[in-house]
Amino acid sequence: MTNRRKWTKARSTRPPDGRVRQSQVVSTFGPGSMLDLLNDAVLVGGLDFWRLKGQGEVVNEPRLLEIVEPLYHRNKWPLSKEAPFRKPPAGDEREPTESCGIQVYEFPRWFVCQNPHCRTLVRANSLERVNQEYRHRCAGVDAKPERCVPVRFVAACPRGHLSDIDWTWWMHERKPCDAPQLKLEEGVSGDFSDIEVVCSTCGKRRRLIDMTHKEQQDFCEGERPWLGLEARERCGEKQRLLVRTASNGYFAQTTSAITIPEPESLRRKVQSAWSILQSATAETLPAFRTIAQVQAALGSASNAEVLAAITAEREHTPEAVPEIRTAEWLQFLAQPQEKPGEMPRDRTEVFWARRIARPQGLPSLVERVVLARRLREVQAQVGFTRLEPLSKDLQGRYDLDVALAPMSLHRDWVPVTEMQGEGMLLVLDEPQVHAWEMSEPVLRREEVLRAGYERWKQGSGSKLPFPGVRLYLLHSLAHLVMTEVALECGYPASSIRERLYCAPHSDAVPMAGILLMTGTTGAEGTLGGLVEEGRRLGQHLARALEDARLCSNDPVCAHHEPTGRDDRDLEGAACHGCLFLPECSCERFNQYLDRALVVPTLGHEDVAFLKTPWT
């Protein structure tokens, strides 16, 4: 997928220096992300540097546009009305050229000599390029050119800006030095306090940990190298030290929609015969309904309903449509009971689901299980952040008041990927969920989680309200079930993803469900392993309850609360030993988790939703 800038059209054309899957370009390695190739460290170029064949492969998903369009309008970015979604370009490995694939920018431009007696810190333009590697001539007449590697540290700001550290300027604290010669000395621990930069010319030494102190941080200059070398903008944030391979160096902001069959509304049926019905009244409508075209369009709708639709069309009243996840939820719940031997009719069906008979051993807290043999999910990347991820609301929308780092200066489309796969939906019993969340112990626990959320909200700038304890329950339960199912269905945990359906009891359509799904790009589906595990969901829940009672990090994990003493203001009892999953599986970046809300946990036995094992 990722192509460098230097190729020749010779017979022995070498393959691209890097390969990335299309799905990764819309998540982990999107525009503005840092990527390590075999011999280089690079920055993935923005959409202006993507080389599409023609207009690229256009993807249609109107429901996803409902989320993406307001966000782009708020940030004053152009968005095409005809083709807003396109797939990333597919590189040609047999004949790689600059006109095919994604261009990348060499970043960072500072390198460290790997000679243990040298360790010189030097810019790339002062090095030799030998066999696709940078070489440094160390001091000494007979010294051979030594291999250099990119420096591990760069500077970033919360607005997504990224730049090289001006090591000479920082080292000498903005004071000139004649012919500076810098070296990077790293201790055995690798901690910032154990790393020093030394100038051989003036003898000055400075520890890297000084760069983490707020009073010594420089103001960001607004550099956006993934958009071009001249794409700077004003920025008033302080720059922060960032390890370029750290997980907080890039948070792709993605949103998605599942393709569901949309029933044609009465309003659309009226529009199909508008040339006749535009002049209809209460007196003339019965006569108009005798016309074959009108009769076929309106069906059995009553005259009152038809007149209301005609009035709305005349007044150009916006048609009320459910939110994106609410529409999916209603579609899942409307599926009929499964019949023996029933399968999708053909491969053109992109949504096929059935409600199954209650699995053996399933607790009463679970109302039903819906198995989906065919699912199509379209995922779009709308921007990205660094240092801190942005939070989405319960419908998957981002806060419009928070600015995202742009992926392009001139393109009017958004990169998307299509996932064809399968899934299973676990629907919790709404009355029991509401009774649980209104109990006194859970209300007290909710206040603790709310206080942590408010502290995080002050630092992040988000204006979204507290999502509620229901989200913590669903998210934690999803992670526990995913871990158990991955051991049985044949898929690794990183290939199973969650989709949370959560809405409070006070909403017109309350939701409490978990969709676990898996899929691949460029294929028609998967092999049914995840679907079949839905028939044994009772066993998986029982094992999840037993395994989650005790974490390998207890009692530290069980007693953790979002008190502000660490950077985990959005988690309760949760850690890598019990709830955390690969980030590609989690739509909330391993946040909004609390094991105590699902199973009895040390010190919090009274707030668990699943309190007793079952057979």
TrEMBL record:
NCBIfam families: DrmB_fam
Region Disordered, annotated ranges: 1-22
Residues in MrfA-like Zn-binding domain copies: 477-579
Basic residues composition-biased segments: 1-12
Name of the molecule in the record: MrfA-like Zn-binding domain-containing protein
